[in-house]
Amino acid sequence: MSTLSNSTNIFWQECPVGKVERQKLLNQRGCVVWITGLSGSGKSTLACSLSRELHSRGKLSYVLDGDNLRHGLNKDLSFKPEDRTENIRRVGEVAKLFADAGLICIASLISPYRKDRDACRAMLPDANFIEVYMNVPLALCEARDTKGLYKLARAGKIKGFTGIDDPYEPPLNCEIEIQPKDGFCATPGAMAGQVVSYLEDKGFLKDHKTPKAGSVAAAGGRQSDRDMVMNSPVVAWVANVSADLCQYIACNPERLSSDHVLHLLFCFPFQHLHRLALSFCSPSTFSDHDDDRDTLHSD
Amino acid sequence: MSTLSNSTNIFWQECPVGKVERQKLLNQRGCVVWITGLSGSGKSTLACSLSRELHSRGKLSYVLDGDNLRHGLNKDLSFKPEDRTENIRRVGEVAKLFADAGLICIASLISPYRKDRDACRAMLPDANFIEVYMNVPLALCEARDTKGLYKLARAGKIKGFTGIDDPYEPPLNCEIEIQPKDGFCATPGAMAGQVVSYLEDKGFLKDHKTPKAGSVAAAGGRQSDRDMVMNSPVVAWVANVSADLCQYIACNPERLSSDHVLHLLFCFPFQHLHRLALSFCSPSTFSDHDDDRDTLHSD
């Protein structure tokens, strides 16, 4: 605790309630899903969709969004290389804390440099760091330019912009790669499904096959099954359909013939409404709605 | 995203799964319990005890320990005044994230300066920042000197040590004050009980009166009642009794007559074992064991 040195006289404090106990409480395993990719590649979209999908299964997740953190924890940092590194380091440390708390922590940051991402990976037991690479070509990201940043970068109004005048180093050893197929972006639901499948396979979502109606909150014994159906799962599902639709249209404008638009705007939602109506007779039909959402992509 | 300015071109990313949804999932309300006080005043002891007590009620908490964070997130910071401020700021920001995630975040730091603590309070909606002041006299902390740091500070081997040659500014508006009574330190269980009562009164622990056997994990439907009794509640309770005993002895050495020691070491545990045995016949008898633990203090 000298004023000069940093980490001297610091005692590690162990607590009897640890990660294992918290994981048991939550019925899941804590980990970090680290989403990396160019600006406009769909990182935040995937983060939100994944968070919705996990929530609908009664799993606790939390999104650490790079932009949001720059309003708080990292507001003292610029975009200079050394500050980018410190930005990623801090997010990595916080993500590690969340994973230790038992949550599925979804970190969504451009995180362009391989060494910075690998440093975060090194903080966690290897299997608990799941790197998701949004492999979307620069041209497609720039064509979308959802935040108008590429335009500013091309005009020289932003310096050191990843993909334009600062490099993006793609992962060499990522656990999951998400990319457009035949020029089509996957829907948020399909992308989330890909990650959820991985998490399921690796045992991070224990007991996800137990009754879906709020595997955590139902413990309170307060909410009836019908209440639960009207709450998170249905809301999350309707939100998923809407998000899928908007994302599909935003992402594939050049693909849309007028027939296609008519089908998407009118027929497709009715198919889902039909299933929604059916679900009130039999809530269990919700459990396999992933297939539906995927039709958007293969449509 | 200019290389010069910090927070320009940053877009706030809203996610449809928010704090309210996570709180519903967890059946609790996220908040920050900020424990402040001199080195050796019992902050970490309270943090652990509180975490155990909350866990035994099926509530998800996470401890941000100042010392532990200096091994990770804050390892680049020294104990210079400006670095202390940055240390507290970062912990405040991370605590805010945990509260937003729905957890009861227990931050345990000396946090000597009032303005730094108030800055953290200002980050959160007022009622969600619960400042706990460990009001233990310097003389008592120094007499205990659990980490041997006061000795080093008095010998001039540590500069800027809080309470010796750096000030501690007590809170003016804390929510909870914990102090020795008649020179006796409260037991960890009693201290945790004081905080839990506050959290209960303010509605942070919703539905805590529902069956105690793991209000969250029980949702999985996997563990029998007997399993649950043998798991977290009993383990936490036994740990509580042990911790209480050790803490009491460590904290009140001058009070211990040989009769007292005999009573503590032999009679007191047997009283608890008796109750433990009884509890196997009737698990519900666990629900009011707070009274027991408090006898340590008033003993």
Please tag this protein with its features.
homodimer; alpha/beta; Rossmann fold; 5 strands; globular; disordered N terminus; disordered C terminus
Structure description:
2 copies of one chain form a homodimer. By secondary structure, chain A is an alpha/beta fold. Chain A has 2 domains: 19-201, Rossmann fold (3-Layer(aba) Sandwich), CATH 3.40.50.300; 223-298. Chain A contains 12 helices and 5 strands. A 5-stranded parallel beta sheet of chain A has the order 2-3-1-4-5. Mean pLDDT of chain A is 76; it is low at 1-7, 208-232, 248-258, 261-269 and 278-299. Chains A and B meet through helix 1, helix 2, strand 2, helix 4 and helix 7 of A and helix 1, helix 2, strand 2, helix 4 and helix 7 of B.
**Major β-sheet profile of chain A:** 5 strands, parallel
The total beta strand count of chain A reads 5
Number of domains of chain A: 2
Largest interface: A-B, 85 and 86 residues
Uncertain residue segments of chain A? 1-7, 208-232, 248-258, 261-269, 278-299
- The quaternary state of the protein chains shown equals homodimer
CATH architecture of the largest domain in chain A: 3-Layer(aba) Sandwich
**N-end to C-end Cα span of chain A:** 63 Å
**What structural category characterises the helix and strand content of chain A?**
alpha/beta
Number of helices of chain A: 12
One letter per element, helices H and strands E, the order of chain A comes to HEHEHHEHEHHEHHHHH
What is the beta-strand fraction of chain A? 5-15%
Q: What percentage of residues of chain A falls in helices of 4 or more residues?
A: 40-55%
Question: Quick one: CATH class of the largest domain in chain A?
Answer: Alpha Beta
Q: How confident is the prediction overall: mean pLDDT of chain A?
A: 76
CATH superfamily of the largest domain in chain A: P-loop containing nucleotide triphosphate hydrolases
Protein name (chains A, B): Adenylyl-sulfate kinase
Family (chains A, B): Belongs to the APS kinase family.
Keywords (chains A, B): Amino-acid biosynthesis, ATP-binding, Cysteine biosynthesis, Kinase, Nucleotide-binding, Transferase
Catalytic activity (chains A, B): adenosine 5'-phosphosulfate + ATP = 3'-phosphoadenylyl sulfate + ADP + H(+)
